Amino acid sequence: MSDWKKTAPKLRIKLKSYDLKMLENSVTKVLGLLIKSGATVKGPIPLPKKIKKYTVIKSHFVYKDSRDQYERITYTRLLDVVETWAKTVEYLQNISIPVGVSVEVRVY
Questions:
Q1: What is the pLDDT along the chain (108 residues), one digit of tens a residue?
Q2: 101 neighbors 16 (Cβ within 8 angstroms)
């Protein structure tokens, strides 16, 4: 078991969502499973939110100076898993994350 730990990969887990409450619930769930598996975790680190703004013309003919503005905010959290165990990968494969949350796992 100690041989696997010496060559164990480090993981970087990035979670993204448009809904902050759903994102925080997912981060709590992932963090709980990582701690339960015995992994050493740094984070969650909140990354800057990305705001995408859209401007739409209300009327295309007479009142075309009248416009609506919309924005879409993307929230992101980062988890760095420094030490992993065999159970860590097993727990991460069996986790259920809501549909509105994007999860990206990188091995480095």
A1: 555 555 677 889 999 999 999 999 999 999 999 998 888 999 899 999 999 999 998 887 887 788 899 999 999 999 999 888 888 888 888 888 999 999 999 988
A2: yes
Kindly report each contact of residues 36-41 with a partner whose C-beta sits within 8 Å and lies 24 or more positions away, as own/partner: 36/91, 37/85, 37/87, 37/88, 37/90, 37/91, 38/85, 38/87, 38/88, 39/81, 39/82, 39/83, 39/84, 39/85, 39/88, 40/81, 40/82, 40/83, 41/79, 41/80, 41/81, 41/82
